[in-house]
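Forum > Structural Biology > Help requests

Title: Can anyone predict the 3D structure of DNA (cytosine-5-)-methyltransferase?

Hi all, first post here. I have the sequence for DNA (cytosine-5-)-methyltransferase but no way to get a structure on my laptop. I'd be grateful if someone could post the structure tokens.
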Amino acid sequence: MPVGFPHPLLVGTDCSGLEATIFALRAMGLPHRHLFSSDIASAPKAMILANAKPEKAFYDDILVRRHEDTPWVQLYITGFSCKPFSSLHHGTKLLREKEAQVFFATVRYLKTKRPLLFIFENVLGMRRCLKKVMRILREAGYVVVVQVMDPAQLAEPVHRPRLYLFGVRADVAIATTAALEKFVQETWKALMASAGPVASISQRTLPGNHPEVLRFLCEQKEKFIKAKAKAFPGQKAEPKWTERHRCFSSKLHGKPPGSTMPSADDMLLANPRQRDAWEKLVRLGGGKHIVADMSQNIDRSGFRADGSLPTITPGSVLASSLLRRTIVPIEKVMLHAFPVHRMVFPSEIRGRELESLGGNTMHVQVVAVAICIGLALVDWDLAAKCTANVSTQCQSLLPGSASKQALRTTAQLASGSKALKRKLPSSSRSQQIRAAPPTVQQKKNNVFREAGPTQGQGSSSKEERFRPSQEQTKDSNT
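Reply #1:
Sure, ran it for you. Structure tokens for DNA (cytosine-5-)-methyltransferase below:
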């Protein structure tokens, strides 16, 4: 690490969800101080306060807070609302949507507090206005590069392709925009090439005899028995989905159903549309184990026969022939690499709340990679010469003068290439960390704020720990 690299790293997040950022930092063993979080929903707030309570503040609404009073951090990460950019949001006005105001609030934080590095995550649908987004961020004084990242490309059994935007404050960027783009792309390609075989779904989910699975199946069976007693009633008039299913049947070309594949009855599917869709998708799989999102129409089910899961959403009903059941709510969290055996789940967080949390989160492993890549883009020796109060020492590096002073020349890249490699933290350290106190050198330089001890994570009487079996604990740590 360069002399100027902060120990601990000051971190803040917005639209924080389950705090994948903090769990990623813990997994890498990277000393940090988590200064602030925000989320407007009650379930994420409860989970954050129970598992990753920020040191300074939790904000309920980013739109109404005073950014002047928000702590300055070196690393700022957010996954702002995806609704304006989602492909499911027909007729969207993109950045003119009301929900897009959250994005503009994050930009105001950048302009006000000037963090050294930001990482933004959002859906691929944001490509439709990506040029404008990039222009806004660059005008805020940042060198910005973008990369599509998907946990499935890292051998995880779940797809979640997302745009990751890396923004380095222009005065501390270690190289030109073109050089940073090349570095990010080549680093991601190298990681994909070394990912190894894809993990099985069974390695990232609970064993069939786990109490959470048995409880879930008991509830499903009760619904199934009631629906079966009424002959699986549907709508009185022929529903719209029947025509889609008839059209889909033409793709089957007489394929027989797999004899070893679970039927709709075996899967405890009680909804007529889901039952019909499952039988057709099993035939389409041709004997291979399949996964499909039964909450969607058959032509939008995210059907996969390669052993992986489609993108998890809050309302997805993911049926797996390998597991012979649908995914349990807590597994939506597990599949995003959260160490649930070490997490506290307040008593009010159950069922739909868990599904919402699991369907809206970032993938911990991908966030960890993004953090490593992002940290490598900062010239930390140069950053150590700038104080947190950038309005005085670094004012000249705001838009307009950034292009003159901030970016390195091509000749300087040769000497900087070795530094890029040194800045990637190891991902093999212990998952549990405590923020280290500031070093003597840091105090002498008067660069970073005085560090305090990290908060504990004690549980109250209303909280309980979720503990999978010993075998599952081992799988969750991989």
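The radius of gyration is 24 Å. The first strand starts at residue 9 and ends at 14.
Shout if anything looks off.
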